[in-house]
Amino acid sequence: xxTNLQLSPREINNAKPNNHMLEKILAIRSSVGDGLSxxxxxxxxxxxxxxxxxxxxxxxxxxxxxxxxxxQDLKSWHPEQGWIAPEKETIARAIAEKYELxxxxxxDKTTSFLYPPSGPEAVRHHIELNDRWQAVIVAHPHYxxxxxxxxxxxxxxxxxALTPLTLGPEILQDLSALxxxx
Length: 182
Prior knowledge:
Blueprint: H1 9-15, H2 21-32, H3 38-46, E1 51-52, E2 55-61, E3 64-68, H4 74-77, H5 86-98, E4 102-104, E5 127-130, E6 135-140, E7 143-147, E8 149-150, E9 163-164, H6 171-176
Antiparallel strand pairs: 1-2, 2-3, 3-7, 4-5, 5-6, 6-7, 8-9
């Protein structure tokens, strides 16, 4: 019998000397198995007071962890034309290279048709780091998403279970450079 199943989330959190939030989330998810929906797992994880490198846990859904970020000055992210600032792009490019990911700068899409902008607004972009199959990291001035579970390069079918991605324990420290105020 797995003794972790008898522990509360705080005890699981404290049972390991590991201080890496993403690894803690994977350990807790592994210990509870598939018995909880993503919503239920999010509620459970919120009781653990998870945080690292200025980020705090917000939710878990479809293998992605969404984190809060330190308050950002949008001018440090977007020059007047709405593209990513060169300083942020340089940091993102270095992170992408370190983790063997591809860098993209997709547009922030607005899905609401009920409240159209009153005038022409600058189109904004965010940072997305992808592997060959999926977005692994989405860095936005208002949030950060990190994929913990995803498609394996060995998957042949869409119905196969998601597997843990190996980003390494330093990923949040590296990503925190994007959110430092200059």
